[in-house]
UniProtKB/TrEMBL annotation:
Protein name in the entry: tRNA-5-taurinomethyluridine 2-sulfurtransferase
Keyword tRNA-binding: yes
Catalytic class of the enzyme: transferase
Entry EC number(s): 2.8.1.14
Keywords from the named record: ATP-binding, Disulfide bond, Methyltransferase, Nucleotide-binding, RNA-binding, Transferase, tRNA processing, tRNA-binding
Gene3D superfamilies recorded: Adenine nucleotide alpha hydrolases-like domains, HUPs
Residue ranges constituting the tRNA-specific 2-thiouridylase MnmA-like central domain according to the UniProt record: 204-265
Molecular-function GO term, any one: tRNA-5-taurinomethyluridine 2-sulfurtransferase
GO biological process, one term: tRNA wobble position uridine thiolation
């Protein structure tokens, strides 16, 4: 038995179809991960759920709806806000895949729905690895590859995962959808960005949840204060700053959460925007054992 996440989009719809075509006993599951305050966004969520039901009815497979709003808030959204306030730039998709789609969803699918395997419409591939483990590989369609967003998923969920679209190009997926009568699903506009923001400006959305903290834009080369801002949580390194009165475009080079200072430099190719060293505090080894090293040593990878 396979439980397949169904979003109402073309990818998950075709994934479910391909699984059924191979003879699997497929159940579709629509995940509600966000409880919107905005009526317009609620309409979008309702429309997606309606499309998911349409797909499951068309494929003649059962559909369930599950509510993961609370775990999403605690494990994804709250973590994202905390990291923005530290001056970091989190990736909610990575957090969501680890905690929700390959966390509580997998648990629900196996424990509540009796699934042997769990499938999604991600563009990625898996390959057996010695010892019963699996390797995570790029999808055939390099432009749509999502293996990066799955890189924090644990081995357990990966071993019981199926990615039916990993060997397909996006264009072929759309063609399959049309060929089986899912024309309106194939024609849907592809969702981009963060699902809970919708059409609103990112900064305005974040400031509904984060208290503004006034700070300054400071020129790296001169130390001169160039302007004011309402908090580093709205900015990321490399982002262009629209500061009035400047003859040239300036870009964020440093963020300081203690002082709320944003250090900027002129031009997008300034040396201060580039680094030769990468620091990581929580490396995740997908299928291999981590190389041994002492706490104060470095391991070259590139």
């Amino acid at each position: 038995k396979v439980v397949c996440g169904i979003s109402g989009g073309v990818d998950s719809s075709v994934a479910a179809y391909l699984l059924k075509k191979k003879g699997y006993d497929v159940t579709g599951v629509f995940m509600r991960n966000w409880d919107s305050r905005d009526a317009g966004e609620r309409c979008v969520l309702d429309a997606d759920e309606s499309d998911a039901q349409f797909v499951c009815d068309h494929l003649e497979i059962p559909m369930r709806t599950v509510d993961f709003v609370k775990p999403y808030w605690h494990n994804v959204f709250s973590t994202m806000l905390e990291e923005y306030q530290k001056g970091w730039t989190p990736n909610p998709d990575v957090l969501c895949n680890r905690a929700i789609k390959f966390g509580v969803f997998h648990q629900h699918a196996t424990e509540r729905l009796g699934a042997d395997l769990v499938a999604t419409g991600h563009y990625a591939r898996l390959r057996p690895f010695p010892g019963g483990r699996v390797q995570l590989l790029h999808a055939v369609d390099g432009a749509k590859d999502q293996s990066f967003f799955l890189a924090q998923v644990e081995q357990g969920p990966l071993q019981r995962s199926l990615f039916p679209l990993g060997d397909l190009e996006k264009a072929a997926v759309k063609q399959i959808a049309v060929s089986i009568g899912l024309h309106k699903i194939a024609a849907k506009k592809e969702s981009m960005g963060l699902c809970f923001i919708g059409k609103r400006h990112f900064r305005a959305f974040i400031e509904q949840y984060v208290e503004p903290q006034e700070g300054s834009f400071v020129d790296l080369e001169t130390g001169k204060v160039l302007g004011a801002h309402s908090g580093i949580h709205s900015w990321t390194v490399g982002q262009r700053c629209h500061i009035g009165g400047l003859a040239s475009a300036h870009y964020v080079a440093r963020l300081c959460p203690r002082t709320q200072r944003i250090t900027v430099v002129p031009g997008q190719h300034h040396p201060a925007l580039y680094w030769r060293t990468l620091y990581t505090s929580k490396p995740h080894w997908i299928c291999r054992e981590p190389p041994w090293c002492s706490a104060d040593s470095a391991v070259p990878f590139l």
